[in-house]
Write a structure and sequence with these properties.
The chain is 49% helix and 5% strand. It has four helices and two strands; from the N terminus they run H-H-H-H-E-E. This is PIN domain-containing protein.
């Protein structure tokens, strides 16, 4: 999980203790040089918001799938598998 995901999820007033406990069990990937370089590369080739670029770059760098309801903003990123949790 990207550090951005943690901030976004826990930053909502509706975040529950259960959700916080779940996040605490996740591996949080902080910004490494590799993630930063991947983020820069993504922003050079597609129009993407910085937080979304960091999230995508984190998933690509670590070989993870991205599970998001916001499929639209990520669907055209090469090398990124995007999963809509409502379609599982």
């Amino acid at each position: 999980m990207s550090i951005i995901n943690r901030i976004e999820v826990l930053g909502h007033s509706s975040a529950t203790e259960g959700l916080a406990s779940f996040i605490d069990t996740a591996i949080i990937h902080h910004l490494s040089e590799e993630i930063i370089e991947q983020t820069i590369a993504l922003r050079k080739i597609i129009k993407i918001k910085l937080p979304d670029a960091i999230i995508a770059a984190t998933a690509i760098t670590h070989g993870h799938r991205l599970i998001t309801r916001n499929v639209r903003d990520f669907k055209n990123i090469a090398g990124l598998e995007v999963i809509d949790p409502y379609q599982i």
